[in-house]
């Protein structure tokens, strides 16, 4: 069964600290993996997109890694800021019988404390 | 601002009723997607349209239907509403069907409360 699992479910860290969020997937055949940031009550906003051949992609203080062999991805946030408090969603795209399909992870809820 | 507009932002209605959610995609985007996000749940894909035609269907109930009009805006119709339909409904758009390296741009959502 095609699945995307994220961990931890929630995380609280102090402002200025680093953190790493995990995403494991079982979809096949894999197309790409995206990380989204979703502020409470808002629509998700794209952070990174990685295809099979890419193993790291950065967007400012956000760095995503992808290991297509183990089907794992991580999102590393450096020097966290209060504005980083949000849900971070891993989205995996794969090829279905007739079109590209998407599975959203349930997200990691990150809270940054001053 | 993603460029995707959803209306209304909030909707309160009663069980058994029917509502229509509206989405205007980003200028130039031909593909529209609808998602449901219940409290503390991940985003669930409902349905996708591309240039007026249904492209993919996810976990959409038979009580729900959608369409994309010639001007590319889309409407999601929810009927015989139940308490469990209360959720945040998101619309997203992309220039083409969800292809490699293509971003999805999300609207701010419509919060539906069924009482």
Instruction: Please state the oligomeric state of the protein chains shown.
Output: heterodimer
Give the rounded overall mean pLDDT of chain A.
91
Poorly predicted regions of chain A: none
- Total number of helices of chain A: 0
What brief labels describe this structure?
heterodimer; A: 114 residues; six-stranded mixed β-sheet; B: 115 residues; four-stranded antiparallel β-sheet; 11 strands; 0% helix
In short:
Chain A contains no helices and eleven strands. With 114 residues, chain A is an all-beta fold. Chain A is globular, with a radius of gyration of 14 Å.
General description of the model:
The complex is a heterodimer of chains A (114) and B (115). Chain A has 114 residues and is mainly beta. Chain A has strands at 4-7, 10-14, 19-25, 30-38, 45-51, 56-59, 62-67, 72-77, 86-95, 100-104, 108-113. In chain A, strands 2, 4, 5, 9, 10 and 11 form a six-stranded mixed sheet that branches. In chain A, strands 1-3-8-7-6 form a five-stranded antiparallel sheet, with no helix packed on it. The mean pLDDT of chain B is 91. In chain B, strand 5 (44-50) and strand 6 form a beta hairpin. Chain B has 115 residues and is mostly beta strands. The A-B interface holds A 31-32, 41-46, 49, 51, 89, 93, 96, 99-102, 104-107 and B 2, 4, 35, 41-45, 55-56, 88, 90, 92, 97-101, 103-109, 111.
Note the topology.
The complex is a heterodimer of chains A (114) and B (115).
Chain A lengths: L3 E4 L2 E5 L4 E7 L4 E9 L6 E7 L4 E4 L2 E6 L4 E6 L8 E10 L4 E5 L3 E6 L1
Parallel strand pairs in A: 2-11
Antiparallel strand pairs in A: 1-3, 3-8, 4-5, 4-9, 6-7, 7-8, 9-10, 9-11
Chain B lengths: L4 E3 L2 E4 L5 E6 L6 E7 L6 E7 L2 E5 L6 E5 L5 E5 L8 E8 L10 E2 L3 E5 L1
Parallel strand pairs in B: 2-11
Antiparallel strand pairs in B: 1-3, 3-8, 4-5, 4-9, 5-6, 7-8, 9-10, 9-11
């Amino acid at each position: 069964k095609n699945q995307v699992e994220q961990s931890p479910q929630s995380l609280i860290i102090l402002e200025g600290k680093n953190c790493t969020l995990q995403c494991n997937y079982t979809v096949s055949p894999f197309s790409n993996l995206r990380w989204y940031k979703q502020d409470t009550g808002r629509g998700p906003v794209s952070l990174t997109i990685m295809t099979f051949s890419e193993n790291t992609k950065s967007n400012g203080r956000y760095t995503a890694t992808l290991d297509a062999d183990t089907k794992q991805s991580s999102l590393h946030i450096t020097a966290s800021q209060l504005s980083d408090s949000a849900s971070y969603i891993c989205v995996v795209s794969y090829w279905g019988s007739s079109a590209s399909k998407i599975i959203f992870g349930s997200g990691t809820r990150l809270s940054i404390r001053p | 601002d993603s460029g995707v507009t959803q209306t209304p932002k909030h909707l309160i209605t009663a069980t058994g009723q029917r509502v229509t959610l509206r989405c205007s995609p980003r200028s130039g985007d031909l593909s529209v997607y609808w998602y449901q996000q219940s409290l503390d749940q991940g985003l669930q894909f409902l349905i996708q349209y591309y240039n007026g035609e249904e492209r993919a269907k996810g976990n959409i109930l038979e009580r729900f239907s959608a369409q994309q009009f010639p001007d590319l805006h889309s409407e999601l119709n929810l009927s015989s509403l139940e308490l469990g339909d209360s959720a945040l409904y998101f619309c997203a758009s992309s220039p083409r069907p969800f292809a490699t390296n293509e971003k999805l741009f999300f609207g701010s959502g419509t919060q539906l409360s069924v009482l």
